[in-house]
Amino acid sequence: MFWFLAAALVVLAILFVLLPLWQFHRAGDSSRARREQANLLIFQERIAELEAERAAGILEEENFNALKSELQRSLLSDVEGAAPQKTEGAGTASTLSPSRLIPLVMVLLILPASYFLYQQWGYQNELALAQLGERTRESANNPQEARDLIFAIGDIVQAEPDNAWAWYFLAQNLVNLGQFPEAAMSLERSASLIEQPQDKVVVLGQYAFLEYMLAEQQITDKVQGIINEAQLIDPNQLLILQILSMDAEQRQDYQAAITYWRRVLQRTPPGPEADMIQVRIADAQQMLATANDNQIDVASGPTIDVELSLSPELDLPADTRVFVSALELNGRGQPLAAEVLTVGDLPTTITLDNSDAVGPFNISSAEMVYIVATASSSGTANVQSGDYQTRTEAFAHINSHAIIQLVIKDIVP
Hints:
Layout: H1 2-55, H2 61-82, H3 90-95, H4 98-121, H5 124-138, H6 143-159, H7 164-176, H8 180-193, H9 197-214, H10 221-233, H11 238-250, H12 254-266, H13 272-292, E1 303-310, E2 321-328, E3 337-342, E4 348-352, E5 368-376, E6 388-391, E7 395-396, E8 401-408, E9 410-411
Parallel strand pairs: 1-8
Antiparallel strand pairs: 1-4, 2-3, 2-5, 5-6, 5-7, 6-9
Helix pairs in contact: 1-2, 1-4, 5-6, 5-7, 6-7, 7-8, 8-9, 9-10, 9-11, 11-12, 12-13
């Protein structure tokens, strides 16, 4: 199909050159014929006038003949001037004239020039990589296909060591073969090369989860560093939340586990996976109740309703990401709770509570908090110059319900 479309485009390009050239020559021939016909009519009219003057005795025979000969010479001169010039070797000269030779050369160069330019600037490598990515998704249970893909993608990686998606697809196939350390290195390389925040955080989540499993389900300094990098982009990345949930369960911090699993459940569509998460939440609630010898209402704690809107003076794209965070006054700088939405969702009201914690500390762990809302031009939680932001004064939540209003309007210098 690709080559069929390419051939059709080449034919179209040739027609763009040949049709105007053909019309130009047709127009020249037609114009030449009209000039010859006009000259002949003028000649006939002038001869008729001379004959009338001769018949009336105004013009003598000798003068009549002289004027008639002059008109005939003038007519012949006009006709020869309008006709194409033909000299010795005229056929070859006409064929090789610039007006014909240049378009002919252009037509002949269309196909090789197009092929050369496509090799230089085309996206054939990206197309080939996309096909390998599709094969990767279809070969999860086919070890032989995974091996073939590793060799094929390996050739791309050697030719283009900065191709982030080649490293990513290589990692997927290495995982399919159980080569987890090698897959982790490929994901690390991929994450370092990807610039788009939404894509980068997905790769970071997979990288963190793989390193977590390789560390025998322990959050090492390396794993924590990956988690921190991912949460700066998206505090609610699912794989990161799952890591934190499982780690909290292992540490028997059931309150934190419940908080994390609830956040995972909010972003999981109904189905077997959601049912499994609900079972884990119920188990964690039971363990927490047993540990405290009473049933604990895991939804207890402060709740903060944030009525959020965008200033009418601002015109931001609807997909601009908005980060809403609760932070401790004079605290560690890490959000106690966070939610992510887009400008297209505004105006809206969101609720921040302990279930929105993004780390081991929640709103209940702080006495004085303040709320910050940022419309991020980069799509990450890192505040940068050019973002728009607003924040509240610090207040004491006193483990109760609070309602605040925020209007995003101030540009970050």
